Structure to design on (395 residues):
């Protein structure tokens, strides 16, 4: 399609077919089917190779209802394990596999989706493809992942997961979303396990560390050792996924958004994720719902709406950034697990509010009360470092 072909103009182009843009396109298809949208994805399918999870309490009933066709598996409870504490928590937990995400949304979009489309450049109203083709629209949303920025001070959650088929039943009744009884290896390490059927598991080796340096062979060895310790014999590794999620310690919100220069952006690029857990699905669902309800889909309106959404989340998550600084900057990295072990002794309602990113004043007071699991002096110093440059000077 050439820029001179007026009949081919789009109302909205979504650059990148990840979680946020996929949900926006799908929800717009439901609520505004007459809108001329085009979703561009460089891969052979939407969603890449990922598993997204959420707690039922992260979303309201209406949101859970419209994303229900995407859900691959749901469980009524989950477990956590620490060196001195283990607990089962009641409450729905669900996962969406990227294969199911792609199957449902690709069918719904039809000709509004273009796969194997490599993007060379994006602006608020046009996309240039790697083959030189230029597409124009009233608005373009950039959803191509995290944008490096000096405006943010970050820790990292790095992980490698393997979906495996076992020789015998694993015996799990639900997910283990955090098993920190394992050797810590220089940061906060835990294993995350999702049982898909009696013989199939997703086993992820996860590390909260200071850099996004990547050692896949070590993580693969960790998974093999964990399975062996649980008495699970792996017959087949079905697939493998990996990720590096930013954990925000501090940032300059206004300057970060000035650097975007009016470009509507979503997902990690917009900072729309839980600052401590890295979970992004609830934010993506809420933003998709908001955009699908907009009457004016143009670049300026979209940029303003998304920035407003991100600003509200940035303010809500101020306390989470404080907790992150205490986790990353106070005490020994190998003892970070103590922070999370103490957290999981707290009331189940507080834990649900934490994951939903909606802590009350009472919740925050409870989290900070009692003897801290990190040195008090170091915790105070970490709490005071609210600007990125203060943290970089200490690195």
């Amino acid at each position: 399609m050439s820029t001179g072909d007026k009949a081919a103009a789009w109302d909205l182009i979504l650059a990148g077919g990840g979680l946020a843009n996929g949900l926006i396109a799908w929800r717009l298809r439901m609520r505004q089917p007459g809108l001329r949208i085009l979703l561009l994805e460089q891969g052979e399918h939407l969603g890449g190779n990922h598993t997204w999870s959420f707690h039922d309490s992260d979303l309201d009933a209406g949101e859970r209802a419209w994303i229900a066709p995407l859900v691959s598996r749901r469980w009524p409870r989950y477990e956590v394990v620490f060196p001195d504490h283990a607990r089962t928590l009641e409450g729905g937990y669900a996962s969406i596999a990227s294969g199911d995400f792609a199957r449902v949304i690709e069918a719904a979009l039809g000709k509004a989706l273009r796969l194997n489309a490599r993007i060379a450049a994006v602006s608020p109203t046009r996309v240039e493809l790697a083959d030189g083709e230029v597409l124009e629209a009233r608005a373009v949303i950039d959803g191509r992942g995290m944008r490096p920025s000096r405006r943010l001070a970050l820790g990292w959650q790095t992980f490698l997961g393997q979906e495996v088929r076992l020789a015998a039943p694993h015996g799990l009744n639900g997910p283990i979303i955090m098993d920190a009884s394992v050797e810590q290896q220089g940061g906060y390490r835990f294993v995350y396990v999702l049982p898909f059927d009696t013989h199939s598991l997703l086993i992820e080796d996860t590390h909260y560390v200071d850099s996004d340096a990547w050692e896949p062979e070590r993580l693969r060895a960790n998974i093999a050792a964990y399975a062996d310790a649980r008495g699970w014999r792996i017959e087949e590794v079905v697939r493998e996924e990996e990720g590096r999620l930013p954990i925000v310690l501090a940032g300059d919100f206004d300057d970060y958004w000035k650097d975007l220069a009016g470009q509507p952006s979503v997902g990690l690029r917009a900072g729309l994720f839980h600052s401590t857990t890295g979970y992004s699905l609830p934010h993506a669902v809420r933003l998709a719902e908001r955009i699908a309800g907009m009457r004016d889909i143009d670049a300026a309106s979209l940029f303003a709406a998304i920035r407003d959404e991100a600003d509200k989340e940035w303010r809500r998550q101020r306390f989470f950034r404080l907790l992150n600084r205490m986790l990353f900057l106070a005490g020994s990295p190998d003892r970070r697990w103590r922070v999370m072990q103490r957290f999981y002794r707290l009331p189940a309602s507080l834990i649900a509010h934490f994951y939903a990113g909606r802590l009350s004043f009472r919740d925050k007071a409870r989290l900070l009360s009692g003897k801290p699991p990190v040195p008090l002096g170091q915790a105070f110093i970490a709490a005071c470092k609210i600007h990125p440059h203060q943290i970089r000077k200490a690195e």
